[in-house]
Amino acid sequence: MAEKISPGMQQYLDIKKDYPDAFLLFRMGDFYELFYEDAVNAAQILELTLTSRNKNSEHPIPMAGVPHHAAADYIDKLVDLGYKVAVAEQMEDPKKAVGIVKRAVTQVITPGTTIDHSNSVDNNFLVAIDCAKNQFTLAYMDLSTGEFRVTELPDFSAVVGEIASLKAREIVVGFELEENQAKILEKQMNLLLSKQYDFPENLLIDLSVLTGLENQVASKLLAYVKRTQMRDLSHLQEVEHYEIKDFLQMDFATKSSLELTTNKRENKKHGTLYWLLDATKTAMGTRMLRSWIERPLVSAQAIEKRMTIVQIFLDHFFERSDLIEALKGVYDLERLASRVSFGKAVPVDFLQLANSLSNVPAIKNILGLLGDQQLLDLEKRLDHLPELAQLINQAISDTASRTITEGGIIKAGFDEQLDKYREALQNGASWIAKLEADEKAKTGISTLRIDYNRKDGYFFHVTQSQLESVPDYFYRKATLKNSERFGSKELTEIEEIMLEAREKSSLLEYDLFMTVRAQTEQYIARLQALAKTIAEIDCLQSLAVVAEKYGYVRPKLTENSRNVTIKQGRHAVVEAVMGAQEYVPNDIELPEETDIQLITGPNMSGKSTYMRQLALTVIMAQVGSFVPAQSAGLPIFDAIFTRIGASDNLISGESTFMVEMSEANHAIQKATRRSLIVFDELGRGTATYDGMALAQAIVEYVHERIGAKTLFATHYHELTNLEQELEGLTNVHVATLEQNGNVTFLHKITPGPADKSYGIHVAKIAGLPADLLERADLILQKLENKPVPAKKTEAPEEQLSLFDFDENYSEVIELLKGQNVDNMTAREALNFLWQLKDLL
Ligand code: ADP
Ligand code: MG
After folding, report:
1. Which ligand is the nearest neighbour of the Cα of 603?
2. What is the pTM of this model?
3. What's the pLDDT score for residue 199?
4. By Cβ atoms counted within 10 A, which residue in 182, 532, 672, 708 is the most buried?
5. Strand 556-558 relative to strand 631-635: parallel, antiparallel, unpaired?
């Protein structure tokens, strides 16, 4: 039955066996071929023609191919879609091969390791996770910048949060995942999972800075990268330990609902805090700013350090302008360094390097002039690598291009031998000019010209009309439509000398270029350090530029009080989008003794905006940015928790309410007295009364047990009565202006509870029919006359039955009262909820 397999196919199968999870591109002559299932799938994804090998046999093998010169595009496309691609090259010249040409995989390109195609400045992080004895570890790396970090994490949800905020696409998994863990990573987060359970013991790493487990996960990551990349990784930076508690804690839901770095609508930067604060001029500055926003600080000292510099930049307009000009000339040093290390750097890359370095002295100079100690520290760290700058300036021609095989790379004076070849070429050029003039005179062909191209070499160009004057010592080289090309003995002699010089000089230039590239490798670590310092300076100037543009102030941060006093604060992004004239500023006052602010007010009045305003202001302050306010005093928060909006997690099949409750639970479990909680319309996702009951219980819990600063917007007007019972709770509402039955939202936060909900007015603005609105008004009046909860006293309208309660309601209240929420597991709580719902 077994069909005879050709030796070539056998070789393919042998290689493919090691890469079952990747598309294998198998180099055959000018094509990369795919076979079997790879061919069928790739043909569909890449719109290739599906053919087959040994068509006439009983079992033809499906085959599809891409031309080798276009392979990069196809690979990019597959990797972009989340696949892996293994590239098998011919390892010997087919002409010289005895038998089958040797082939081997030279690189595996995966979504987390691709570096070549990305023109975007964003990081592409490859993350590895590991777990032992319930302790999780996570390491991440960006192959294109060399960044490499590792941390320990308390639980799987923290792992998920880290992965999400790193926006990783591929996870190297070092342990056997539990089923639901795999489901979350693979299905919900749409990540490519790559296994790497083992690693060579001697791979890493300094155990004085890392724990054993951190060492293990970092080693696995490194092992995976070595296994797939099979190339020099000398640009990888030393692995660095970090701790999430050194940063303001925000889970993924919080970051995404506050739209810190990506907006919710299209998952893009536009309209986010990152978008607003980004006036950076360098690629590494842009990347660093993003990581600053993802990870605001908690150390007052570190925050003040950033703010001090922002202040100085703000105060020195001219120096800042010069600084910005200098930064504009600095290219992506991290990516350039990695291209050098990967052996992919081309001549223009060196020009960009040199150009970048030439701007560093100016930057140093400006920082020095400003004279502040913090700036002098930065200045000292700026290393302008004069040796490297000099090497490139002497070696690489200003007009060098991307090609490295055709000469034109190396400057005159850099290499004596090269100069000699070039002189020969120069001479040749004048010989040719002389020959051209001589032959013109001799033959009388007035338009005679000597030209060169790759195919025909040097030739005499003669137009049709003058063909009869061609002498007999010319021989024909080529015939074109309106002209012919001829050679001659003399021309051939010159040509041979020239071609030799040309070829030798190109080869020599190539060698010289390789030497320069190799020499540059030793500067990679210094280039990366320079890139970091520049990125930091760039972020700080960006914060200053934005602070000036929008009139931000430096907040006063206090470590030992918990006072929030913001005068005339604004929502940074909403203000930027709608314009400062339109935006109504608001004070936010949460004195030491006030933990909870209960915010009531009609729909669309500005409750959510007010709450987000505080969260964003806190984040900006802890990033080191100035904030949108007349003045701002803030404690340093350790974490921000939010429950905002209805973001159904459809993929995981969780209902809005379940998401709502698990986010609330997350906040309640993790928040401390130093946290900020933002709860927006909690309980909305379920029926009115159990929603309200839960909302109240949660407010009480936060008040009694946690004491976190909490903003709580609610449409349950009944909750405003809590002010009398809970000492640390105050009511505020959004003011409205009612005139002749019309309501204007003033967007102004005012003490005390709101008196009406104005839902009907909003419905009116939305254009609902007048008689419908009248009817709603009537129902409302009836409802408002009726104390809740109470038995019905009059025969209700049919529509009222929804709000009509019987003893079930009191039973629910009793059940709730009797339940010790503290002792419930999440599952019990959920069951309990179902029980309540059933009763209602
Ligand atoms: P709510 O949460 O009370 O329903 P939102 O906070 O969503 O209201 O605000 C509704 C709209 O009102 C926003 O889209 C915004 O355009 C506008 N708005 C809110 N706050 C302000 C403000 N302080 N100044 C100007 N416009 C505001
Ligand atoms: Mg709202």
Report:
1. 1
2. 0.83
3. 85
4. 708
5. parallel
